[in-house]
Design brief:
Length: 136
């Protein structure tokens, strides 16, 4: 089973003209992107996520601001990631419970491996633990 890990994206440009990060060609991400969405204007005291997926893999990018991401794998391993650069993303595999907390002006881009499907979500933590309890 894959674990969450950070990805570094190529940074193109110069300080006097600005920069861009590029995902160009196959093999840069561990999956083909089937959906993308972004979150913004999330109050700092709100914790988003609080779910896992049966199949969907994601890459989370803080295109602005800072995002604290906590992941928990079925075996109980917990990791905390700080996303604060648009040049870096976090791979979140299927089966990983994850939460996000945002700085005031954070904008999060999410690249997903599947189209939206509500049955793919596990939104109850106890169900998450029961679903993959044999992995712990």
């Amino acid at each position: 089973m894959r674990k969450p890990y950070l990805l570094d994206f190529p940074k193109l440009g110069r300080a006097d003209v600005g920069y861009m990060a590029v995902l160009d060609g196959p093999g840069v991400l561990p999956f083909e992107v089937k959906r993308l969405f972004w979150t913004y204007d999330t109050p700092e005291m709100i914790v988003r996520g609080r779910h896992a997926h049966h199949q969907t893999e994601q890459v989370l990018v803080a295109v602005a601001g800072r995002i604290l991401v906590t992941t928990e794998m079925p075996d109980g391993e917990i990791q905390l990631f700080v996303l604060d650069s648009p040049q870096q993303g976090l791979y979140v595999p299927a089966h990983a419970w994850h939460t996000m907390q945002y700085s005031r002006a954070a904008v999060q881009l999410v690249l997903a491996s599947t189209p939206y499907s509500e049955p793919d979500y596990i939104r109850d933590y106890a169900t998450f633990k029961r679903t993959w309890g044999s992995a712990s």
